[in-house]
Amino acid sequence: MRTIGGTVAEVCGAGHPGVCGRCRSAVGMMVAGTSLLYNCAMDDAALQSLLDEVFDQALVYHGFTDYMRDYEIIIYATAAPSTGIQPTYLRYLFRYCVEAGCRTAVDAEVWKTSLDDRLIDLEMGADRDGYVWGVKWHCLYPGATIVHESESANRWAQAVGIEFHEVRIETNSHNLTLVFSDLQVGELPAGYAPFVVDAGDEPSGGEQT
Q: Of 65, 66, 190, 203, which is most buried with the most CB atoms under 10 A?
């Protein structure tokens, strides 16, 4: 274990923080069965390194958590078969997320040819012209970068009294902008669902202030 920025983070056998691309198998052995891989509070270099670890991987879901405070991005991470490392689902949890923006990365000309509802089904849309929404994942390319000297992050830091950061995440489908204070990365168990509708279920709790 190693302390980074005042918090505890898992490290690989060579001392690299987070999910290390240089020796990911060592990280996998150290964190097997744990939920928290990294918790950074937040050095920019360490944050960018962690974002770079999922460059060109598959983003399969993003949105606010059901308790509304944090923003989660779920990634299907793979490695070359020769490494023997099994694919896994990772959750990047952007904690205390005060701003979240999403814009399409698909060109308007492509949108014109992608309005057919059959394109939201992979089987029905695979051989059709247009963007096949039914693939149900985005490629994390060009990837994620920190917005240094962010006006939004600085404004929130002054107002709330804790550190904030701004990150831009670019994919081939959605482009995201997030302003948040902390980041946690963990492996997801089989069956994880961001939201489940139960029969007779309704929002609970008292009125919000």
A: 65
